[in-house]
Design goal:
This protein is 69% helix and 0% strand. The protein is built from five helices and no strands. By secondary structure, the chain is an all-alpha fold. The chain has two domains: 72 residues; 59 residues, no CATH class.
């Protein structure tokens, strides 16, 4: 099924609208999942003494950075703000955003998983292990959104 998200991507409008159908699309559901589970990743780490270990600082940076940007893009897509700025190649922006999120989240998830050890700090082990699991789930969501962004970009390029 296609929502007005793909149909109106290049259309111009003078008022903000609300796209109720976006959250029913696979990219919309993936974006909400990225926000919820990304929040889990960084809150699980933030509740520990992560600042003592530089590896977890990197994971925090990636998780918070992409969480904020994903919330930003969800607001843009839900309010159809992209229709007011047709000069921006939104399909390319989405592809670059999701692709970079996938790559950096994959690196952060690997760093997170490889840094979790009971020898490091037994008190924070469960939080760090859970954050590692959720980081890989969020990575797979960004991979899915990268795929859908690529399909959208490719269809716009071929027109």
């Amino acid at each position: 099924t296609s929502s007005s998200f793909t149909a109106n991507l290049s259309a111009s409008s003078s008022t903000l609208a609300y796209d109720r159908e976006f959250l029913r699309t696979v990219p919309g559901l993936l974006m909400v999942t990225e926000i919820v589970l990304g929040l889990l990743v960084w809150t699980l780490i933030a509740g520990t003494e992560y600042f003592l270990y530089p590896a977890f600082g990197w994971v925090m940076f990636v998780a918070v950075f992409y969480w904020v940007l994903t919330v930003f893009f969800l607001i843009i897509y839900m309010t159809m703000t992209y229709t007011r700025i047709p000069q921006v190649p939104w399909t390319m922006v989405g592809l670059c955003f999701n692709g970079s999120a996938f790559v950096l989240y994959l690196i952060a998830a690997i760093v997170d998983a490889s840094s979790v050890t009971k020898d490091l700090d037994n008190h924070n082990y469960n939080s760090w292990a859970a954050s590692s699991f959720f980081a890989f789930v969020v990575t797979s969501c960004y991979a899915g959104n990268t795929y859908f962004s690529f399909i959208s970009w490719q269809s716009r390029t071929l027109q």
